[in-house]
Amino acid sequence: MRKIVLIGGGTGLSTFARVLKSFPVDLTLVVAITDDGGSSGILREEMKIPPPGDIRNNIIALANNEEILTKVFSHRFSTDAMKKHSLGNIIIAGLTEMYGSFPDAVIAASKLLNIKGKVLPVADALVRLIGELDDGSKIEGESEVARYGKKIKRLTLDRKVQALPEVLREIEMADTLIVGPGSLFTSVVPNFLVSGVSEAFSRSPGKKVYICNIMTQPKESEGFDLKKHVDTVESYIGTTFDRVFWTEVGGVEKTVLERYRRAGAVPVRNDLPDDTRVTVIRGATTELIIDGREKLVVRHSRESIVSILRELEILEEILL
């Protein structure tokens, strides 16, 4: 069975996980722990635990079905008294208190939802992102990094932390390592700032793959073309990718793209047409999400993800 490790953070990772779980693969998700906004940010400060939000999203993505427990983990309180918390975040926080360990809480939550695969926080630590700007000044926290992204010269953590041993084992044993899609500076890169991760990634004999975001992100990756995305990630992982996937937006409604443009986001331009590592994928789509308000967002379609699996010869191996 092909062993696949996905490395990232929130929505992008969970989108791929939902498709991959339907195939007979050994799947592990390695998730960043630097989120400091919303419900996760409140819980990390009040309980001194790693933020549970991205972990929760990916556990839900790998759930065996969409029955009551999945709906429970997805529920978000509407009252100010509950500070807009996600019930799933509170459950993971409570399990952390019960077990005395965030990784053990993640395992327990994964068992509750009977997930297909594994979700691992990259480390068991309370850390903050530090961004050094072009002028030498520094900013602290994931939320601030997202605002200053394109001006950031270098990212670090506020202290040295070691990756979970299981994370390093999974990376070193993987047949395929997929990085992204996900927020460049706040979901993808933070994993490689944790001690041991970039070294394990470089050592791994597995095929190293980068899935580029479909759209740039306001402030964070504004003006970044494909090359800038690839170069940025490679500068932190310490090695080069074997394959790079770029997705065109031909099928996305113009009204949706215009709304993104007004917000400061545009499709990532493929400025590496002669790079033999780059494969163009067709199949971007829109998905209706409800998070305080309804809106259409651009996502990789199931068809585009399946195309990537075919390009990586993962599906062919399964069919054989």
From TrEMBL:
A matching Pfam family: CofD
Superkingdom of the organism of origin: Bacteria
InterPro entries per UniProt: CofD (IPR002882), CofD-like_dom_sf (IPR038136), Gluconeogen_factor (IPR010119)
CC annotations in GO: cytoplasm
UniProt-recorded Gene Ontology molecular function terms: LPPG:FO 2-phospho-L-lactate transferase activity
Gene Ontology biological process terms from the UniProt entry: regulation of cell shape
Matching CDD domains: YvcK_like
Chief location of this protein within or outside the cell: cytoplasm
Gene3D superfamilies attached to this UniProt entry: CofD-like domains
Record's subcellular location: Cytoplasm
Keywords tagged on the record: Cytoplasm
Keyword Flavoprotein belongs to the record: no
Role this protein plays: Required for morphogenesis under gluconeogenic growth conditions.
Protein family membership: Belongs to the gluconeogenesis factor family.
Protein name according to UniProt: Putative gluconeogenesis factor
